[in-house]
Amino acid sequence: MTILRPYRSEDREEERITELAYVRGVGPEPYAAEYPAHLHIDLLPEAPGQGAGRRLIQTLFTELRRRGVPGLHLGMDPANTSAAAFYERLGMQRLPGADGSLVYGIRLAALVPTRIRSTG
């Protein structure tokens, strides 16, 4: 499988991390080819419900689409039902997970760009 490199950075550390991801290639997860990007997000205990998580993830989706990334996946604790509902509201679909894990993914090409309203 050929993995395209649609992005180059002037930041050496970012470039090193990006190159590591390309060299690593597709992992053992059965969905990694379709959902190669991985998300891990933590918010401070007082942050949920204020829209910060949604804004962070929508910004990430936009940037990944700009870079030509076809999809994103994440793993989470199955006991975190509020997070699962949040990811489903964002359009993420449950994927097969091993050992009782809960995995979600989203195909980024299927997302419709968000329109930003002008206030002035």
Report on this model:
With 120 residues, this protein is an alpha+beta fold. 31% of the residues lie in helices and 14% in strands. The chain has three helices and four strands; from the N terminus they run H-E-H-E-H-E-E. Strands 1-2-4-3 form a four-stranded mixed beta sheet, covered by helices on one side. Strand 1, helix 2 (52-66) and strand 2 form a beta-alpha-beta unit. The termini are far apart. The model is unreliable at 114-120 (pLDDT under 50).
Please outline what is shown here.
It is built from three helices and four strands, in the order H-E-H-E-H-E-E. The chain is α+β, with helices and mostly antiparallel strands and 120 residues long. The chain starts with 11 loop residues before the first helix and ends in a 13-residue tail after the last strand.
How many helices? The count is 3
> How large is the radius of gyration?
16 Å
Please tell me what the overall shape is: globular
Q: How are the strands ordered across the major sheet?
A: 1-2-4-3
User: How far apart are the first and last residues' alpha carbons, in Å?
Assistant: 48 Å
The biggest beta sheet reads:
4 strands, mixed
Q: List the uncertain runs.
A: 114-120
Percentage of residues in DSSP E strands:
5-15%
Q: Give the SSE string.
A: HEHEHEE
| Portion in helices | 25-40%
Helix- and strand-based class?
A: alpha+beta
Mean pLDDT: 76
Number of strands: 4
Key descriptive features of the protein:
disordered C terminus, 3 helices, 4-stranded mixed beta sheet, 14% strand, alpha+beta, single chain, globular, 120 residues
